[in-house]
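Please go through this chain and its backbone structure tokens and walk me through the local backbone shapes. Keep your notes short.
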Amino acid sequence: MDGHSRSRKKTNNAELFAFAGMHHIFAEQRSAVNVLCFANETKDLLAFGCADNTISVCTVVSRPAVVATLKGHVGQVTDLDWSIANDYLLSASHDRTARLWQARGGLCARVFNLAQAPWCCRFHPL
């Protein structure tokens, strides 16, 4: 046996995938998460869109929690995008709408009715 073989410690899958210190923000979520989007230039803000037509806005660093649940779509949420200052969220849905949301307040600022269901959405960078 060479020195490398003796110094290797055997590990099992439980040790390899022990998520010590991990926080769970999806514990209350009962439907599929279709899209997950981190906010721009920050590690603390996350949004996810679900098959139950909702969007959740979460803080994820210090004390993980859902800070807002955005409700208004009547079809699955397919995509999300943050505005450059992270104050608005744009969402796309199977209900043939795109919606502009106040990210932290949860208010729908505008509804865009579309001819077909959008699969994706993006803010213009300017």
User: Anything to note?
Assistant: The longest helix spans residues 3-7. Helices lie at 3-7, 13-16.
